[in-house]
């Protein structure tokens, strides 16, 4: 059963002109995500897409950001589709709301990245 849907759209240009970009990356992304971003040669579209995915997941939980960005991790299935892994406070919120799964889709073009997350509830 669908609990909620979250969507986020970001302008890619926002990330190109960011001051203290390295600090931003360290604050927002987990080690696993940073490794993937490095593999993609710091592709700005990938970074924007992962950021949008984290925001979309937070919106799907209907809580806003009441936890750290690193409590939401975007990983990849073997087929390349993104998957959501939660930690700490985000995981606790899902458990308390009886959310069993969150699916996410990410897309980007030259100017924007967009992500949609669907939180699925038990029952």
UniProtKB/TrEMBL annotation:
NCBIfam families given in the database record: acpS, pantethn_trn
Catalytic activity: apo-[ACP] + CoA = holo-[ACP] + adenosine 3',5'-bisphosphate + H(+)
Compartment annotation: Cytoplasm
Record gene name: acpS
Organism: Caldicellulosiruptor morganii
Its biological purpose: Transfers the 4'-phosphopantetheine moiety from coenzyme A to a Ser of acyl-carrier-protein.
Family: Belongs to the P-Pant transferase superfamily. AcpS family.
Protein name per the record: Holo-[acyl-carrier-protein] synthase
Superkingdom, natural source: Bacteria
Domain 4'-phosphopantetheinyl transferase residues, every copy: 5-100
Pfam families associated with the record: ACPS (PF01648)
Amino-acid positions noted as binding Mg(2+) in the UniProt annotation, renumbered to this chain: 8, 55
Enzyme Commission designation: 2.7.8.7
MF (Gene Ontology): holo-[acyl-carrier-protein] synthase activity
Xref: InterPro entries: 4-PPantetheinyl_Trfase_dom, 4-PPantetheinyl_Trfase_dom_sf, ACPS, Ppantetheine-prot_Trfase_dom
Keywords attached to this entry: Cytoplasm, Fatty acid biosynthesis, Fatty acid metabolism, Lipid biosynthesis, Lipid metabolism, Magnesium, Metal-binding, Transferase
Class of the enzyme per the UniProt entry, highest EC level: transferase
Obligatory cofactor(s): Mg(2+)
Keyword match Cytoplasm: yes
Keyword Secreted: no
């Amino acid at each position: 059963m669908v609990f909620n849907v979250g969507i986020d759209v970001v302008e890619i240009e926002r990330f190109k002109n960011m001051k203290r970009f390295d600090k931003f990356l360290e604050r927002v992304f987990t080690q696993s995500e940073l490794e993937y971003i490095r593999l993609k040669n710091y592709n700005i579209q990938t970074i924007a897409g992962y950021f949008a995915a984290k925001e979309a997941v937070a919106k799907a939980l209907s809580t806003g950001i009441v936890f750290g960005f690193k409590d939401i991790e975007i990983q990849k299935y073997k087929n390349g589709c993104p998957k959501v892994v939660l930690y700490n406070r985000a995981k606790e919120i899902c458990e308390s709301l009886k959310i069993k799964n969150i699916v996410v889709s990410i897309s980007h073009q030259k100017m924007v990245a967009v992500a949609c997350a669907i939180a699925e509830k038990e029952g």
